[in-house]
Give the backbone structure.
Amino acid sequence: MGDLLACLRGWHPALAKAELSALLPEADLSPTPSARWWRVGGVEKLEGLEALDVASGLQCYLVDGVVTSVEETDQTAWLETVRTYLNHHPVSGSVAVRGWRQGGKIPEWSLSALCGRLGAVLHGRGCTIDLEHPDHVLALIADGPAASLACGWMVGDGQAAFSNGERRAGERPFFKPVSLDPMLARLAVNLATGPVSRGPVVDPMTGTGGFIIEAALSGRPALGIDIHSEMVQGAQANVDWACEGAPDHARVVRGDAMRLEDIVPEEWNGQVAGFVLDPPYGRNSHGSLDNDALLAACLRSARAVAAPLAGFVLILPVHPMDPHPVDEVNLEEALPLLRGEWEAMKTLIAEAGWHLQSGHVERVHRSLSRLILHARCAPQG
């Protein structure tokens, strides 16, 4: 497959990059002038394709993709660079050129005109042009803010959206307005769990089952847990609906998030690869128990059944923050949790046996943001 240029969706490049790192833990990721493009080395073809198949933030790969800063070249020199690339990467079969922009136009560089010139180059090389169903696509991507172009033979479909419209919360049989968007739910599952082969995923407070839907559709063994019978029945109905039938590898059960060792299958003890949790802070799920005590007990219980490399993604409501779409948040700063103090939350997470890896912010609306925390098992003892 050669080295790859991973092209991330513009929705939240920093989160997408974290997801890519989790799905390809052995890969060597190197930055480019664009936060949306990362060079990926040391990846076997099957690994790369598996990550592309399940990721929500990864658009496509470009094989040995060429990245060019338009501030350091002109169009004639750029075209010669692409000619050289094509000389070193011949393909057989029909071809087409596809171009798209990320983040706005690049002044004086017309994407449609450049695509036309590339098409002429391919035609001049004797390639068969098939605009509808080509065997190979030469992609040309323009990143306006980075003033850069990426070009290369594409693996995947960079212009395809993450397929989630048909299973958004409002389309499901059992609906609650607070449900996460499927794109974020899938990313959280991937970030927490890593490669699909690593093991099962557990959502200790599953609500309407959004995480379990995405885990099931990505082929992972998955278990959703909720203390309320209504939520269990509704979430299972949602999973069955999204999977077009009751899946053998994913189910929802009634149980206590503070006693996961009594709920997960016996063979999963010490083998759970990832946990995903969007706590129901708007309601008290365990009678008089306060939210922080419930969360601490849940995190400790998860640590008890976790695999050695397990991850945990925890989503917390925060007061409005800058969205940081291309950067992680600084976990050493005081973050404006909607409830409680950030230093106390960090202590709670650490004392439960988890080590924070990164944090990201996503805007919900003008008066609310989400803090998406990624943690891993801290060594015991």
Remarks:
- The CA atoms of residues 178 and 379 lie 34 Å apart.
- The domain at 4-156 is CATH 3.30.2130.30 (VC0802-like).
- The radius of gyration is 23 Å.
- The chain has a mean pLDDT of 93.
